[in-house]
Amino acid sequence: MSRNLLLISTSSTHGTGYLEHCEAEIKELLQGKSSVLFIPYARPSGISHKDYTTKARETFERMGFTLTGVHEATDPVKAVEQAEAVFIGGGNTFLLLRQLYANKLVAPLQERVKKGMPYIGTSAGTNVAGKTIGTTNDMPIVFPKTFDALQLVPFNFNPHYQDPEPDSKHMGETRETRINEFHVHNTQPVVGLREGSMLHVTGDKIELKGPLTARIFLQGQKPQEFKPGEDITFLLEAV
Fold first, then answer.
1. Catalytic residue among 138, 183, 197, 200
2. SUPFAM superfamilies under this entry (predicted)?
3. Residue 219's domain is classified under what CATH number?
4. How many domains does the chain have?
């Protein structure tokens, strides 16, 4: 498979602008490309498709790429089939997945990615690249036809992964607790991506990028921490 994916935990980190912290990685991924198709279906904070696309367009134009929104196309399927690259932004993962199915974009995205089309996801856009959306942090504000995602990789994500605060008096479940609950019923690995971290998947190789470690959860095992540069390609062998 000729995968070329950049799967990012978040669109912005503290003190940085939209996509600023991952600009170098985006430019590297899109080397030789001139245009990007944006899928704004996740609608963070309920923002309109038009306004969300305007925000993304301003950022990508500053990086030297043209950007159009898939909702602007007469035929969304054809837009995906003809795209040089695709970017799916963050927001609500349940809404995003429902709209991908409603607009019949799941299969075309899978086919184009298999053939090497660059795919960029942030937050919800990273969630839907995994096997299912069962480890998203989002509220189920709508109900998609299935939790099965694009399955561009055979594992799940937990973007915005947070470690417990040592002095916190909060008595609710931690992210780790929630993921352990998930693994009572599901077998696929889960990658906890902290803010500023991202995975670059090229073919059958994975590279962790960013300043922080990633916390990887395997069913029935203690969580493991992996540093940028360490080999985590074993995740692609998950079943």
1. 138
2. Class I glutamine amidotransferase-like
3. 3.40.50.880
4. 1
